[in-house]
Amino acid sequence: MKRTLLDYLEDMRASALYSGGVSRVLGHLFVGTVLLFVALPFLWMAYAAFMPKEAVYSGELFSKVGFSLENVRGLAKEGFWGRLFFSLALSSAVVFLQLFTALLAAYALRAGLGLLPFYLVLMAVPAELLLVPLYGILRGLSLLDTVFALLLPFAASPFVIYLVYQAMRAVPEELLEAARLDGAGHGVLLLGILFPLVRPTLVAAGVLAFAAHWNLVLYPRVVVTDPRFWTVQTWLTDLQRKYPTDWGLLSAAALFSVLPIALLYLAFERRVVATFEEGLKG
């Protein structure tokens, strides 16, 4: 029986659908495998954080499965929760300062201030190169071992300023010009028009700024030696030095120190991704 052209086209369509289905299945398997390897250390950390100490020291990690809050109580004795809330307050204050300065600086750039190349150069400078000059400045101002040493150097961020500037640049100039014709000044333009329009970008920038300051380890260790001003990351390095083999305690500390960042990112994940997508399109 002769095959018509339609039969050949149907065969080709079926073959293409089959190949596409196989490709999708293989793609999902690959992504699932990668996700498993990425999530495995976090799953192990969560498991070890609530594992009885006897199971750790005996080496029977899976035969003696149990649930214990001993490691959590151990963190309280070591002063973990005080360091955690101190870091939350400190990073939140840094985010507020960075968003405030970014809003003003981005508006100045949007208005024609020719300092954009300066900010781009600053974004390319590794933060570690600024550690020694900052230390000298803080020592000259007698700010070492104070909370201001952890706060003031991060009051402005070139990266956050650039993100907010990109969002402001997308606002049509006609909208601002119409407001100027109605007698709007800089305050109205910034707070009444631009601020509501760039608020989603401010949220995403705040999440990234919080994560960047929260994860600092070297800088707080250098400029602050007083345990009263240790951030949670600095405290973790000291805990690891004191209890290098207490995997349950270390896992519990790592788990609860990662939790604020994880919850914050999960809450604003779509906004952060959308901000970067808009930036790439722009």
Structure explained in plain terms:
The protein is mainly α. The protein folds into two domains: 34 residues; 204 residues, MetI-like (MetI-like fold, Orthogonal Bundle). It is built from 14 helices and no strands. The radius of gyration is 26 Å and the shape is flat. The model has no long low-confidence stretch (mean pLDDT 83).
Shape: flat
Query: Kindly, what is the distance between the CA atoms of the first and last residues, rounded to a whole number of angstroms?
Result: 58 Å
The DSSP helix count reads 14
Low-confidence stretches: none
In CATH, the homologous superfamily of the largest domain goes by the name: MetI-like
For the sheet with most strands, the description reads: none
Number of strands: 0
Looking at the overall shape, the CATH architecture of the largest domain is: Orthogonal Bundle
CATH topology call of the largest domain? MetI-like fold
Assembly level: single chain
Q: Beta-sheet strand percentage?
A: under 5%
Radius of gyration (CA) equals: 26 Å
Quick check: average pLDDT? 83
Structural class estimated from helices and strands: mainly alpha
| CATH class category name of the largest domain | Mainly Alpha
Order of helices and strands: HHHHHHHHHHHHHH
Number of structural units classed as domains = 2
Helical content band: over 70%
Summarize this, please?
77% of the residues lie in helices and 0% in strands. It has 282 residues and is mainly α.
